[in-house]
Amino acid sequence: MEKSLRIDFHTHVISEEFLNLAEKYGDDRWPILEKTCDCGANIMIKGKKFREITDQAWDTETRLQDMENEGIDIQVLSPIPVTFSYWSNPEQGLELARFQNDFIASIVKEHPTKFIGLATVPLQDVDLAIQEMDRAINELGLRGVQIGSNVNGKNLDDDALDLFFKAANDNNVPLFVHPWETMGRERMPRHNFMYMVGMPSETALAAGSIIMSGMLDKYPSLKVCFAHGGGSLPYLLPRMDKGWNVWPQIRKTEKAPSHYAKLLYYDTLVYDENNLQFMIDRFGADQIIAGSDYPFLLREAPSGKVVDKLSTLSNEEKKRIHGLNALRFLGLEVENFQ
């Protein structure tokens, strides 16, 4: 197979000089970064270790070397989801969002052919979220917005969030939905189930909320990509179609859920060829975007490994999944990176 552009759409980054808002505002719910050595740190919440990270999360040269070693041409950078902090005072949440967006934009500015940036916004206040989305896209040059799968327990089809999705639709801003604050997390303290079961379930709920709500009829230009292959959504779609058919009173859409699922995008982080094939059968190859969850332990290395393993894909389909679908989703051209 000839060399094709390889984009890792799903990667996370954090500043080594991350704001300590816990200290500034006297509230230990804020995530803070505690360095353990030059090569690592802990993200701390309420005085407890939330997760360990390595310098891959903040050191651009380390990241570039990893990309070189793994054959990745471009990474799409987004914040670590725990930093969404939608629970916070909106103005304080905006402060953290602006800091992270400025940081990501600075990396992209330094390496414009190697990195593409996604913003974060304080979705607990839709007006501020729209304001920061506008700044991030039109002033900083970021190419989309990463959002959480819910906002303080409100699903993404909640009326309070409608104006944000309208703004994204009207301004052609693509959205990347990542699970956070997963449902049922009080039942998942053992076995790291939050990552293995909670996140895929949470993602399916977020996707289902958008699919069933009529949002994609209302906002036909809206572009949304879901992390982790859409979680459990591909498997649940026939059940959603059945429910839509037998309960006409719940219908808010013109067509069955499986129709709208094919309008959304999904990353390839499912690890397994059979799962990826199932996604392609459900959604079509043009809706699938290679992404790894770099630099975390559950990542696929290299990004798109499962795509290369899938023998049923043509070379052209692999090119689209490895890179061209990401560019189309983000409204970019290959020539921007040559």
From TrEMBL:
PANTHER family the record matches: 2-AMINO-3-CARBOXYLMUCONATE-6-SEMIALDEHYDE DECARBOXYLASE, 2-AMINO-3-CARBOXYMUCONATE-6-SEMIALDEHYDE DECARBOXYLASE
Going by the UniProt record, its keywords in alphabetical order are: Decarboxylase, Lyase, Metal-binding, Zinc
The Amidohydrolase-related domain covers which part of the protein? 7-332
Any one GO molecular-function label of the UniProt entry: metal ion binding
The UniProt entry's GO biological process terms, in alphabetical order, are: secondary metabolic process
Under the subunit heading, UniProt states:
Monomer.
Q: Which family does it belong to?
A: Belongs to the metallo-dependent hydrolases superfamily. ACMSD family.
Q: State which Enzyme Commission number(s) the record gives.
A: 4.1.1.45
Identify the InterPro entries for this entry.
Answer: ACMSD (IPR032465), Amidohydro-rel (IPR006680), Metal_Hydrolase (IPR032466)
Q: What class of enzyme is it?
A: lyase
User: Which first-to-last residue range defines the signal peptide?
Assistant: none
Kindly list the GO CC terms recorded for this protein: cytosol
Write the protein's name: 2-amino-3-carboxymuconate-6-semialdehyde decarboxylase
Which pathway, per its entry? Secondary metabolite metabolism; quinolate metabolism
